[in-house]
Each structure stands twice: as structure tokens, then as C-alpha cells.
Amino acid sequence: MAQELTFFKRRPDAETSRRDFLTRIGFTLAASALASCSRGPVQKAIPFLNKPEEQTPGVANWYATTCAGCSAACPLLVKTRDGRPIKIEGNGESPLSGGGTCATGQATVLSLYDPDRLTGPMWHGETITWDEIDRRITERLAAARERGVVLLTNTIVSPSTTALIADWSRRFPKFRHVSYDAVSFSALRQATRECFGTAGVPHYRFDRATTIVGIDADFLGTWLAPVEFTRQHAARRRRALSGEMRHYQFEAGVSLTGSNADRRFGMAASDHGAIALALLRRIAAHAGITEPLPDVDAAIDEHAIAAAADDLWRDRGQSILVCGSNDVSIQVIVHAINAILGNIGATVDVDLPSLQKQGDDGAVDALVEDMNRGDVHVLMTYGVNPAYDLPAGPEFVRAMESVALTISFADRLDETAAHSHAVCPDHHFLEAWGDAEPVKGSFSLAQPTIAPLFNTRAAQESLLKWLGESPDFYSYVRAVWRRELYARQDRYHTFDEFWDHSLHDGVFEDPARGYRSQGSARLDPERWHAAARAIAHDHQRAAAARMPDSYELQLYETVALRDGRHANNPWLQELPDPVTKVTWGNYIVLAPSAAKALEVETGDVVRLAVGDHMCDLPAYVQPGQAQRTVSIALGYGRDRAGKVGNAVGVNAFPLVAAHGGHRRYVRGDVVLQRRTGKQLPLAATQTHHSIEGRPIVKTITLEELLSGTPEVMAPQPSLWPEREGGEHHWSMVIDLNACTGCSACVTACQAENNVPVVGPDEVRRGREMHWIRIDRYVDVAPDNDAALDVAFQPMMCQHCQDAPCETVCPVLATVHSSDGINQQIYNRCIGTRYCENNCPYKVRRFNWFQYAGNQEFDYTTTDPLERMVLNPDVVVRSRGVMEKCSLCVQRIQAEKLSAKQEGRRLADGRIKTACQQSCPANAIVFGDLNDPESEVARLRRSRRHFTVLEELGTRPNVGYLMRVTNGEKTEKPS
Amino acid sequence: MTRWKLVIAIAAITSVVGAGVVARELSRVGVHQWYSPVQPIAFSHKLHAGDSRIPCLYCHFGARTSRHAGIPPANVCMNCHGILQKQSAEIEKLKELVAIARPIAWTKVHNLPDFVYFNHSQHVIAGVACQACHGHVERMERIEQEAPLTMGWCIQCHRAHSGGANAPAASLDCGKCHY
User: Fold this and answer.
1) Does the N terminus or the C terminus of chain B have fewer Cβ atoms within 10 A?
2) Alpha carbons within 13 A on the beta-carbon side of A655
3) Does B128 touch chain A (CB under 8 A)?
């Protein structure tokens, strides 16, 4: 610009030339700035030096393994990309889980990438090498050879680990293995052993039952094997559409199972025994057993007992009674009832029992005594956290001080590891070899899906090393399978063939397990009479000791956090509880009458006092809760879980009582007091549970279904022209009759689609980001508080053919695809939120903040380790962008591509959305409506099919099948 | 008078030209056509794909099954260069890096933004030639991005192939590439 522009007349003063100069400079600056805008950051592409044959960037590898989220050990198929697991799915080969998973299982992939994991061994709080810690431990173990060495573990369902523990007991004369479950079933174990000689918990078969009666057993939510039981329950409900099936539930607190029962009856928390005896009395009468049973003075509903007992008797041999009590006498009564009904061997299998819940309360108590006496020289803790979840946790910590060497295998410095001398962190189950036998005869293998991220070592390999063996658990498992399982089958003729196929399939069924026992076991009547007398005696004593104005307390596990071991998992902390829809914390559940008496509302803080123990919790008013019973969830109030789980909620484990050598989760003598002026608003995703007469959820009685066609709404006239179709028309149907509300789909969707975690403050503002939610609608009978009519409805983007959201986007960021999907184009969205406003189903979620990589939301994407769980096929959304269910378009595209690559037609059922794949009840069906033979097209033609808010004329591509009821229900407006 | 008219005329023309420049520059933000960075090893596609006629998919095998075509791992290079007698300064660089076990950090030439999902194998299966998007790579000494890789450029090909008797349809749905 040095050249003079001669057509400007030069003025003598300098101002003009300065102005010209500035104009030219300004133009240059703008132009050069724009020109340099076309630069971008340099990107590098760094391929392998030596590429492993099976790994191609962009192509997923699947490995069969077994979940270790709880002792149910559901077989899994884990999807890995670029050598790291990103998604957990169930293994359809499993006859137990049937390919389902629970929310906890889905979330375990995130706990692999937990930055609070220990990265290496520690000795007295300092980091140390494996060689050095091995040297020190072996030295001390050699000195302890003649003294007490104890291995305290949770339930071990792994046959190889059990064999290894047996090796230890052979090597160390004073070695013993103590099993400890945070939530104990030891009374059921003892009762089963006393009645049938079986060392174990029975394997229950709800799919073989026509009448199910549960007494405070949340078998669809948290009791024993919820994935397997949900699958069985849903299968039975499907078959029952042509016949009948009844599920009665007696419970004090409102559980997921009670919400799904055909008839729900209330009870006080301590009434398990009274109800069991009442049922026994009536069934014994039917069976012609004349010996009188002792009376129990309890206020129980005789009509309820009659209905349940009569149905149990009518369907004897095809009925089942389960009870969640941890009292031996009560479980003996339950076994007696099942025996009289002929259910043993049919619906209650004691020949091939469940191997879960091996915890022995008596042995744990004895261990603490031995520790205090100084008889335990070495204590190893594996998979347990007694400092947190033993009711006398502080006492256990004190007892640990009398132990010369305490070793913890915990993956983090948890409450127990923090007080241990040595911490030898175990691998995460996704990094380790192993096997499982959760039910006798059903085996599965576990293999690593990623090389260990840190300098951790499998607990079994530490145990092998300290025995002086080679720390190679892979070879050990192979040896056990060769020795014990290979011989049981004759399909494969070399061990390597057998091993490779078993590892590929993930599961192995012992062929001999097809055997069913001959008949029902006979139970000595004297046994149940003794139990009945014990129950009557207990009840009398409790009634005499009861204080006026006291409440009873029921302690339970939540579907999300269970016994608290997953407290540091943000997906699980933010998972709305299926029944209360509350996240991030526990609370005290009160009946409306109790709340009124205390003058509290939901969110007011209540002080609970039991003996010397006191705790403050926010109240949650729950219609259907027993009037004099309050419920508190276990698993909260941890202080060494990690950055996410610390100080969330209150620890309720100290409230667990003991009775007859077994832990007890119900107790009386609870005093409540309102903490005036204190409030702790709950972070709930749904606070209004009434349907207000709108046709959102429809139910149909079995009679109506079998007799005729329910009214079908005439198609709405529409102003919109018909859309041009494409090759496919994707559609989804959700069976409300099978859905139990377990919320596994919510976590599966979060894992698959990189849905962010927003924290309790944002949840309180209604800004949780879950693409799918389970709406819960409750109708309470006007005259009977306990008879709840609950409906669960998974709600996600309905992909309306005439979507109200598509017409109002000013930039066309949401449009309809040629194959029926309502698409959300993140990069085009400018965040007007008009679409969110227009959506009648309220399924659109807005990114109010930059949730990813933001220290203010330090949950799942701030640490580079945590980001390894992200699905690379799904964009991570930024601030100001709307998002919602996409019907897993990435999975649809991947499967279509796979079909093209393999040159085959796209078969129905091959494409599974994440929610569909995880559902243990197979309630969600996805497919192509353009194929008249597809499952989804068939279901759309079903008499039970309806769409939500049909009268709005949105023509959703997501349909529902009506829930079928067959009890005396409240009149549901439909 | 004339002087002011002249001033306005010049100003108007400058504004129009300026606006045109601004518009063109703004629409070229993020467009890296003709990008041809120097690579750590001066690999010549002209020599390998052109003169030696090595098929694209021999080295860039990922394009057949994955969304990423991928730059070949060093073991693919060493398939030949491990046994060939031919030596040169660039081959020496390759062998040195392999000897010290350091993966080669190539500079990626064709970059799409994060909000675009592009899958190579879909296009390879549909029969799209590599040259259609990458230009005549077999004539390039050093790789240069020949195509603008803008959405408009992708769409014009998708429009041309939007179905027909036996041809697989290239979708025009937004959500097929933006999810």
C-alpha cells in the first residue's frame, strides 16, 4: 500500500493522508485476517508400527466375558474399539440372563476408567513395587504359617478362584476363608441347608410359575438375580396372555417388584413371620394337614392372605413363594409352604441351587471376635468393604489394629483399604481372566478386553505368587476347566477345541444339569412347627418391647447403587430410582399419614434415632408406604469412594440389626423427629406421578383382551402431505406388559450415545440429559393405600411422522429422514429451543452448559482416562445444542453396512438399539415397518397397540403395547 | 461535483469487491483445498501407485472394512522394503524409525470436521473410485488435497447418484452423515 493513490487530490494537511492510511491498513488487516482464517490445526495420523492382525482402526472387536457388578455374574459381550471396551451388552447365549443386563452391569464399563482407581500397590500409604511388596508379604506369611490367616471375601462364584482358595487351605494349616455379603442372605442359606441339605440358596424359576407370591422380596429389582428373574417373569407374562398368571406382593416399602405386581398388599416391616404363618395355616388346611399352628397377633389382611393362599394352592406345583427376610424361622416356613405345594423341584430348585450369596453372618461375627483376641495374624480382604458396610464398621476397624498384617485387594483406597497395611489393587474385571458358576451347572468364562491400564495385578495372581506358584491365573483357569469341565462334555474331542469354543461362546452348560429332581422334597413337620413357635415368640417379644409412637424401619438396596460398591459411578448416581425417581442421594421414605403426623413434606429434613444412633435425612412422601414403617436405602454415605461418590447421602448400614446370629434389615423402635426449618430438596426427575385422566398409558384387562377388540381410534385427518418413503421405515414398539421399569435401558443409552452427566444441581432444575426416561404413573385406590396401580412407560423421542418439532426449527436442524427417523443435526442447531417447547412428549434435552471437558461438571469427561469410554461413532455435543434419541442411527448404519459388506439381505432383528439390547425383559422391539413380516410390523397390527397422545395427530413411529391387568384394580381412565 | 461522484464510484466498487473478497474468504474458512504438507518421509505415490501400480487397497486396506482408510502401518511398508535391495535417503529414514520402534507421525492431509461422519467402506462398497474424491493420487509426488471436501461438493455427487435401477442410492438425509 506504499503506492500513492493518485486520484485522491492531495491536501496540504497531514490528516487526509493519515485517514487514507488507516483505511488502507484496516482493509489489509481485515483481508489478511480472513485469509489466515482458512488455516486450521495440523492433524497427525500415526498408524501402528506393527499392526496386530485382529485390530483395525474403526472396526469393533467383541469379546465374551462375565460381569462382576454383582454375584449374579451375567455373561456379557463387550464391544471394544481400538483396544478399549466402550459398551457392555448381554450375551444372548446365556440361558440365565438371555442377553439382558441391568443398569449396574451397563455402568461397569465406566468404572474401568475411574481416575480414583489405585495405579499400583501401596504399603503403609506409600507406593511400592510389586517385587518389594511380594517379598515383604511372603516373609510375613512364612512367619504366620502356624497362626491364623484369614481370607475375607464376598461371594465367590468362580470355580477357579474357589479351587485356588482350596489350595491355600491345603498349604496353610490355620488358613480359613470367610464369606461376607454386605446384604446378607445367610438365614435363607441356613434354612435351605436345614430343610433340604443343600448348601446354597435355591434357584428360583419364575417362568415355571402361574402364581407368584412375594413377601418383601424385590426379585425384579435387586433381590438375588434380577436380570434372570425379569427375563423369567416377562417370559411368563407373555405366555400368560392366553391364560392367567397372578403375582401377589406383600411389602412395607414400595419396591419395583411391588409396583409390577398384579395385586399389592401392605404390611408392617416386621410382619414377614405373621404373613408366612397365615399363608401356611390356610395352605395346610387345603392340604388336609390338621396340626394346629401357633397364633400370631398381627394386623394382617385376611382377605389378602386368602386370595394369595388359595391361588398358590390352586396352582400347586406351578406356584412359588419367596421372602426377603433374613430370619431362619421365617425362611423355614416359606420352604415348608413350597414343599407342601409341591413346588420343590419345579419352581424352587434345590438340586441345582444358586451359588450366589454365600455370606455367613456367624462366621463374620466370629472373625471379628478372633481378630480382637489376636488370633488372626494375617487378614486379606477381597471384594469386601466391612469398614463401610458392616453394621459395626468402626468396631471392625478397631479389630484390624490387632491383626499383624492386613492386606486389601481393593481397587481404590476405600474405607477398609485405608486402614490396611498393604493394598494390592486387583484388576477391573474387564482386564482380567476368570470364570463363573452363578447357578450350579451353568458356567461362563471371563477374559480381558483390555490390557491392564495400571500397575495392578489380579487378586488371584497375588494369591498364586504368595503360594510360591507362577502368578499366571490364565493357566490356572485353563487347568481347572481341563480337570473339571472338559470331562463332563463329549462334544469337543480335544481340550483346546473345547476351550476355544467356550471362550468364544462365553458360556458352557454342564449337560448333566438337564436333570430335574424326582419329586418335591418332604419336609419334617416338626421342623416347621418349631419355626412357627419361634416366630410367634419373637413377635410377642417385639410387641411387648414396642414403644408407643415408634416406627419400624426397613432397609433396602436401590437398583442403581445396590450395596454401595458402585457409589463412585456417576452414571449410577444420576440414574433415577425406578420407584422414587430421585437421584444423587438417599432419603427417608414416609407414608402420607406419617408425614402429616410429623408435619413434613418431601424435602424436609427428618432426624431418625435408633438407640444411640442418629441420622438426618430428607423426607420422601410415598403413597403406598406402610403407615408405621419408614424405609431408607443402603449404599450411600460413603467417604472414600472417590470424587463422585463421597458425601452423597447418608450411610444406613449402621442401622442394620442382628437377630439370632443373622443380620436383620427390619427393625422397630425408630423415633422420628422433624428438623424444623431444615430442608434438602431432592434431585428428582419426576415429581408428579398422576396421569390426570389423559390417555398416556393404556391398560387392558385380560378379559377384554381375550374377548374382543378394544376401541381403536380412527386415523386423524391431517393437513400435512404424506411423506415420501425410503427403502426402510424404522419403527419401535415397547411392550408395557413386559417392561418392569428397571431402567437398564437408561444407562445403556447413556453409554452408547455419550450422554453427559450433569450433577444434582442441574437435575433439580430438570436438566438431566437422559435420552430415554422411564415415566412412572401411580393411581392409589381411594380406600386402600397399599393397592397401588403403577405403570412404567419408557419415553424417548417418538420420531413422529408429523413432528411438531420439525416445523418450528428456524434453521432446519431437525428434519425427518427418508427412513422415518427424526434427525437432530447438532452442527446446525443454534439453540433456539423452540423444538423443545413444541414437543408434546418433552423428550428433547438441551445442553445448557458445556458438559464435556468442563471442570464445573467433573463427572465423566474431564480426565483423559474417563474419555476412553466415549463411543467414537457418536458426536459429543457442545453447549447450546439440542439432543435426543436418534433410534441409535449409528447402530442402524453399522448393521446396514455390515449386511452390504457380507453381501446379504438385512434380516429383521439384526439391528438392535442400545435400549433394546440391554432389556432383560425384551420389552423393546425395533425394526422395519416396510417389511410386513417383521416383528415390529406384526406388533403394530396387534390389538394391544397404541401410540401416546394419539389425538394430537403426531403419528409417532414409536408405539406401545397395552399393559394387561388381571387383578381387582382401580378403574384406570383410558 | 465530478470529484465526489468519482469518490462514491470508487467507494462503491471497492465495497463490492471488498464484500466479494470477504464473502469468498468466509466461505473458504475451514476449506483446505490444495493443502499439501511436507511429510516426515517423502513418500511418492507416483512411484508406488503410479509406476509400480500397487493397488490403493493394498496399503489402505482399512477402506474396505472400516470408516477410516488409514495410513498403512510400518509393517506393510516393510513387507517390500524389508527385502528390496533398493536404497535411498527416504527408505533409510523408514528403516531407522522401524529399527528404533517409533511409529511414523504422518501429517493428515484430508481432514473433515468432527461433526461429519464419513465412512470409507460404505463408499468403497458402492464402487466409488478413490480418485473421485482424492484426485489422481497416482500422479502425485507429494499428496495434495485436490477436492474442496465441502458439504456442497459431497452433495453434488450424492444428488447425481440418488438411486435408480441398479445403482445403490447415495442418501440425501442429513442424519446419515451428521450424527
Assistant:
1) N
2) 30
3) no
Query: Alpha helices, DSSP H only, in A785-920?
Result: 834-838, 889-902, 914-918
Chain B 35-54, CB below 8 Å of chain A: which residues?
37
| pLDDT tens digits for range A15-44 | 557 777 777 777 666 666 655 555 778 999
Sign of the dihedral defined by the CA atoms of residues A406, A409, A414, A416, in that order = negative
Give the count of beta carbons closer than 10 Å to the beta carbon of residue B64.
14
Cα A162 from Cα B34, distance rounded (Å)? 65
Secondary structure of residue A153 in the 3-state scheme: strand
- Phi, psi for A77 (deg, rounded to 5): -120, 125
User: How near does any CA of chain B get to the CA of A727, in Å?
Assistant: 10
In three-state form (DSSP H/G/I as H, E/B as E, the rest C), the secondary structure along B115-137 is CCCCCHHHHHHCCCCHHHHHCCH
Q: How far from A958 is each of A426, A772, A800, A936, CA to CA, in Å?
A: 44, 12, 8, 10
Task: Give yes or no for A573 touching B (CB within 8 A).
Answer: no
* Coil, strand or helix at B3: helix
ipTM attached to this prediction = 0.92
Instruction: Give A476's contacts (C-beta < 8 A, 6+ positions apart).
Output: A160, A163, A164, A460, A464
Q: Is A497 on the interface with B (CB under 8 A)?
A: no
Instruction: Note which residues in 717-746 of chain A have CB less than 8 A from chain B.
Output: 726-727
Closest Cβ–Cβ partner in A818, A826, A828 for B173: A818
**Nearest CB to B74: which of A50, A58, A893?**
A50
Contacting residues of A for B21, CB less than 8 Å apart? 31, 34
Task: Name the phi and psi angles at A761, rounded to 5.
Answer: -60, -45
Length of chain A: 974
Task: Round to whole Å and give the CA distance between A351 and A514.
Answer: 11
For residues A188 and A215, what is the distance between their CA atoms, to the nearest angstrom?
Answer: 14
Beta strands in A361-483 (DSSP E): 376-382, 405-408, 422-423, 434-439, 442-446
- The dihedral built from the CA positions of residue A845, A847, A853 and A855, taken in this order, carries a sign that is negative
**Which residue on chain A is closest to B23 by alpha carbon?**
A34
Residues 778-817 of A with CB under 8 A from B: 815, 817
For chain B, domain boundaries:
1-30, 33-71+109-179, 72-105
pTM for the model stands at: 0.93
Tens-digit pLDDT profile for residues A261-290: 999 999 999 999 999 999 999 999 999 988
Q: Is A592 exposed, middle or buried (0-12, 13-18, 19+ CB in 10 A)?
A: middle
